[in-house]
Amino acid sequence: MFDAIVAAPFEDIPTGPSQFPIVASLDKGQDCSQLTVPSVSHRRMLKDCLEFGSLYSFPRSWLAIGNVKLRGVSIRADLRFTERRETEAKCWMGVNLRSQLFWANLGHLVLLRSDGTVARTARKSEHPATHHDVELGKLDPYDPATFVPFAITFDDQAWDISVGNVKARVPVQEMPLVFSAGRVLLQTYMCRVGVRNLEVRVL
Fold first, then answer.
1. Strand, coil or helix: what is 4?
2. Are 81 and 145 in contact (CB under 8 A)?
3. Which of 129, 156, 160, 161 is most buried, judging by how many CB atoms fall within 10 Å of its CB?
4. Which run of H or E residues covers position 122?
5. Residue 68: C-alpha distances to residues 15, 129, 202 (Å)
6. Per mean pLDDT, which range of 14-18, 43-47, 52-56 is the poorest?
7. Three-state DSSP class for 7?
8. Mean predicted confidence (pLDDT) in 60-69
9. What is the rounded average pLDDT of the residues 19-46?
10. How far apart are CA 95 and CA 151, in angstroms?
11. 121 HSE (CA, 13 A, CB side)
12. What is the mean pLDDT of the chain?
């Protein structure tokens, strides 16, 4: 019932046009108006970061950067887990580029699990059932409470990924499915996450 009520149409407060590059330190109690979260979602400033995310509702556990759909984009940010609700599936946090919706299989998502594993999403074809994760490496040692630098770039040549000391380059020509443009999302699964030192540029 709650999900149905939250999904009911209502007039959003307009966020206005996005100005790029977006650069926000987010570590001195200063929020950024270019960052939005879903209605009734958690969002607060901590002393060292902006915290967002949900411990129970994945559809509302994201933070959008800017108010536009982008094709070529570069994002840098430091992320850390602030609170986790571990289940059989590990909590994770990540960066989703060219995102069409909050679902992981409707964008190009790079994620870091609470055990230090880094992965990216992929599809073998256009069919959603072919969605799977591609393991890229593991941070070892890893403390989920510490900040990890993310640096992700997606352009017409490649998807470049850097999470801590795990790095990968995925040529666009080798990807079976490539979304043309979409939102820039920071996403979480069954956890809250802190973000700081955010920098987003259009390519």
1. helix
2. yes
3. 161
4. strand 117-123
5. 11, 28, 11
6. 14-18
7. helix
8. 92
9. 94
10. 9
11. 26
12. 92
13 compared with 125, residue with greater pLDDT: 125
User: Cα separations (Å) of 130 from 1, 72, 101, 105, 123?
Assistant: 31, 25, 17, 9, 5
Determine the structural domain holding residue 109 and report its residue range. Answer: 26-202
CA dihedral 164, 132, 121, 110 (to 10 degrees): -30
Q: What percent of the chain is modeled with pLDDT above 70?
A: 92
Q: Is the dihedral of CA 199, 161, 163, 79 positive or negative?
A: positive
**What is the distance between the alpha carbons of residues 46 and 100, in angstroms, rounded to a whole number?**
29
Unique residue bearing structure tokens 């993310």: 150
Which residues, in sequence order, are bridge partners of residue 160? 153, 169
Does 87 have pLDDT greater than 90?
no
Which residues touch 115 (CB under 8 Å, ≥6 apart)? 90, 138, 142
In the chain, how many domains are there? 1
pLDDT, tens digit (0-9, with 9 covering 90-100), for 111-150:
999 999 999 999 999 988 899 999 999 999 999 999 999 9
Kindly report the backbone phi and psi dihedral angles of residue 157, in degrees, each rounded to the nearest multiple of 5, phi listed first: -100, -45
- Assigned domain for 2 exists: no
Domain annotation covers residue 18:
no
Token representation of residue 33: 């108006």
Would 64 be classed as within a structural domain?
Answer: yes
Between CA 166 and CA 139 the distance in angstroms is 7
Domain holding 105: CATH number? 2.60.120.560
In-domain check, residue 90: yes
